[in-house]
DNA sequence: ACCATCATGTAACTTGTTACATGATTAC
DNA sequence: GTAATCATGTAACAAGTTACATGATGGT
């Protein structure tokens, strides 16, 4: 009850085949939603069966045909309805949090090494996002609504990476204070 | 491949029955991990079958017996091994992000109302967490390692709520600029 | 010849969600 | 007597993960 809607958003922006959607999910929308091609194909098939999307088979030169999906009138209504429903409180799951909490029951030094790695990963991702912001949204004032929404979601990605980095840093500092 | 470990952490802090675990997950650990009692009972049964925990049936007055779970030597080793393994990059899912991104395809005014509600919810939760910090950790210097870990996870909860509030606020401000 | 890419899928499995069931005790 | 709490579960289903399959084209 959610991947469907994420796919409808993506297909509203631009119709796409399963594989194209998969790739688009690895970027932009993928800051906050991840899905494998297997999942996407399965859900697309269901959406087609339910009449939420129409499919056009597009022949290509030197490549297999692709099935391009476009939201139908029904699909557009489903999406609009969903957008207007109240949001459930998000329930985040973080393995990292569980590990921080359980540090006493294992090798704390190993955990600290892994934390440094995790922080480096997030720093890298943050740098990528910030570069995307500079390149794609050099001047965020006066953007068209749809483009502004994309910018604001990217802003969320940036904020989320900063959250991770700051939190891990706080943990590492508290740890260093003890061992120094 | 994760709830098991979260349960092992909780049971290492203090042995518990299924229902007690469920309640503990609604608090503290629950900032970053949520599980229903059905899930917990199922996983506990598997952990018992695999010899990760031992179970003691405790009779109670005027109440049904309860089955108290304690990590076994095997369970403690499993937990220690897991704590030392590198963290996979966390993949967060946010329905809110999808809705922000898709705002153009629905009623933007309704979305804005829902966003205000969502922000109020997060503000409430932030207030709860901050009160917990004041009451349980009035002086965070010189805490014992295990207690400090609990404090730092609470800090993460606080930081996460602030992330939500700040992001939603940024979105609402960008929206107001346009409509004013 | 061999590997990577494009494009679509199937199958088996693990997790997570929702709804229901039982049976005792305490509070109003 | 009615509802809430304590405590443990079952069953059906939805969602997500992992591994494998197919068959063509293009590059080295």
Question: How many beta strands in the DSSP annotation of chain A?
Answer: 2
Oligomer: homodimer
Structural class of chain A: mainly alpha
The order of strands across the largest sheet of chain A is 1-2
Approximate strand percentage of chain A: 5-15%
Shape of chain A from CA axes? elongated
Question: Domains counted in the coordinates of chain A: how many?
Answer: 2
Secondary structure: helix percent of chain A? 55-70%
Specify the biggest β-sheet of chain A. 2 strands, antiparallel
SSE string of chain A, helices as H and strands as E = HHHEEHHHH
Radius of gyration of chain A, whole Å = 21 Å
Count of runs of 4 or more consecutive helical residues of chain A: 7
Give the uncertain stretches of chain A in residue-range form: none
If interface size is counted as residues with C-beta under 8 Å from the partner's C-beta, which chains form the largest one? A-B, 68 and 68 residues
**What distance separates the N and C termini of chain A?**
50 Å
- The overall pLDDT of chain A, averaged over residues, is 93
Organism (chains A, B): Nocardioides ganghwensis
Protein name (chains A, B): PadR family transcriptional regulator
Pfam families (chains A, B): PadR, Vir_act_alpha_C
């Amino acid at each position: 009850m959610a991947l469907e809607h994420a796919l409808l958003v993506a297909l509203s922006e631009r119709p796409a085949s399963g594989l194209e959607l998969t790739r688009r999910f690895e970027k932009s929308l993928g800051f906050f939603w991840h899905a494998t091609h297997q999942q996407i194909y399965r859900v697309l098939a269901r959406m087609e069966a339910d009449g939420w999307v129409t499919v056009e088979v597009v022949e290509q030169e030197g490549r297999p045909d692709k099935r391009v999906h476009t939201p139908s009138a029904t699909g557009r209504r489903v999406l609009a309805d969903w957008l207007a429903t109240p949001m459930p409180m998000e329930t985040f799951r973080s393995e990292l949090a569980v590990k921080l909490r359980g540090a006493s029951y294992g090798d704390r030094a190993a955990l600290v090494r892994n934390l440094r790695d995790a922080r480096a990963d997030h720093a890298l991702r943050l740098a990528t996002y910030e570069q995307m912001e500079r390149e794609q949204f050099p001047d965020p004032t006066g953007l068209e609504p749809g483009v502004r929404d994309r910018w604001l979601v990217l802003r969320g990605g940036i904020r989320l990476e900063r959250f991770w980095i700051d939190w891990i840093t706080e943990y590492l500092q508290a740890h260093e204070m003890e061992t120094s």
